[in-house]
Fold this protein.
Amino acid sequence: MYGIDQSVIDRVISRRGKLHCFDSYQASRCALVVIDLQNYFMAPGHMAAVASAPAIVDTVNTAAKAMRAAGGTVIWVVTDADNADKQWPSLHSHMLTPHSSARRLADLGKGSEGYKLWPALQVEPQDLHVVKLRYSAFIQGSSNLEQLLRERHIDTIMIAGTATNVCCESTARDGMMLNFHCVMLADANAAADDATQSASLANCLLFFGDVMNVSEMAQRLR
């Protein structure tokens, strides 16, 4: 199920008494949070492109349509790398080569082609947009996502995007610890390979929230 080993499913059920945290969700208090579906993370040739990411676009569009129809909110989150070498030196100075750092700064800065959302995404005028500076959209100084959610009395986020194990999981982890209900949408997340995808989803299911497919999300919205 969701590519997660049955032993993990059994552990979750043993701890919770059931697989999923909630049988239904009040849509007006839910947001679909779509993370980093930008050209930089999707288009071949970019340093951080995830080969499987374009394949989830139709599913993400389906999730967005279902969320809007139920009365929920859709939020498109993008990463901005402008001045990241100064604002985030722990990444740029120690975890990237000078060449890789320069590529990230150039290809993911505002105004670059890499910064733009993937063109096949169906973004509507009523949707919200958030710019983040770190992997997690919730960590202090990264974005105003928490503020937007609190202002709208949203307590549940359905997370889609890429990479599952980096920005999506980081946002789910921090969201849960800020007392949001976090759901990873298995078929609307993309990682570098199946093993990484499964491990990330398993970890989120065990400790940070829930995992389900978009069709299950749609059935639970009310």
Q: What stands out?
A: The chain has a mean pLDDT of 97.
